[in-house]
């Protein structure tokens, strides 16, 4: 089928090697704060368990060693965290998918009703059709790193909001309150940044990966932390897959004799935002990316189009370097 990239038979994710060909049964999981609704398509049975470590542990013990099963769930604002952690620790295959895609799939199937049990069935059917790539499992240190990166992103957003409020506030007492809050948030940001730098320096497991990333001009401590935490698949997929995962792969919009402009959509927005800033730096100081950007501009490409193309080139080169264990070569 056009536009679909072929998945490798085996991919290395996290600490374990998983085979996509092993997976035959996609268990749909609807995640809530207090419970998990599961649908097993092989038996047609639904099940509800508490979203707590003990109940999840019992399920994992039951499923351990059953390589034909993959648990598939939507990203649920962190409520899936305990479940994913225990699945990964027990080497049980799982995938976290985009909730909007699942809802669109449900509408396409004519399923308008929405309950927890129905959602679990829809997710199972969605996965059986699209066969998602397993999400990379994480160690405790990697989960901590990921939590700090997420918190850093939240602090940056809060600082931006408070700065905007400061511009809009005319009352002196209100301004002092905003400034006080800003100072606290900025101190917290410095503290998080310091912890992330220390984690990068002490990370023995990803030492070589960090070295490769930071050998590229444009990739600093923040970009390295985000790529490690939120793009663990880097170096384990092909160039088309990694570009699509980040959301910088060009999408067709053609119909009949009309050829529309290519566009990007979906992907991991937090990774894409950091990659954008890293690419802006690379366009100035990284010879390969700078030459590529200049070439695109000379062909008449708009600046934003050229920047997105450079983002795609940057991330695919980094993916290749990590896969082949090479440092960035400016020549």
Describe the structure in your own words.
The chain has 331 residues and is an alpha/beta fold. The protein folds into three domains: 10-130, Ribonuclease H-like superfamily/Ribonuclease H (Nucleotidyltransferase, domain 5); 140-205; 221-250 and 260-324, no CATH class. It is 55% helix and 12% strand. The strands form three sheets. A five-stranded mixed beta sheet has the order 5-4-3-6-7. It has a two-stranded antiparallel sheet with strand order 1-2. The protein has a two-stranded antiparallel sheet with strand order 8-9. Helix 8 (221-230) runs antiparallel to helix 10 and helix 11 runs antiparallel to helix 12 (303-324). The model is unreliable at 1-18 (pLDDT under 50).
List strands and helices in order, with pairings:
Layout: E1 10-13, E2 16-19, E3 25-31, E4 35-40, E5 45-50, H1 53-63, E6 69-74, H2 81-89, E7 94-97, H3 99-108, H4 116-130, H5 140-168, H6 172-202, H7 207-214, H8 221-230, H9 239-246, E8 254-255, E9 258-259, H10 269-285, H11 287-298, H12 303-324
Parallel strand pairs: 3-6, 6-7
Antiparallel strand pairs: 1-2, 3-4, 4-5, 8-9
Helix pairs in contact: 1-2, 5-6, 5-8, 6-8, 8-10, 9-12, 10-11, 10-12, 11-12
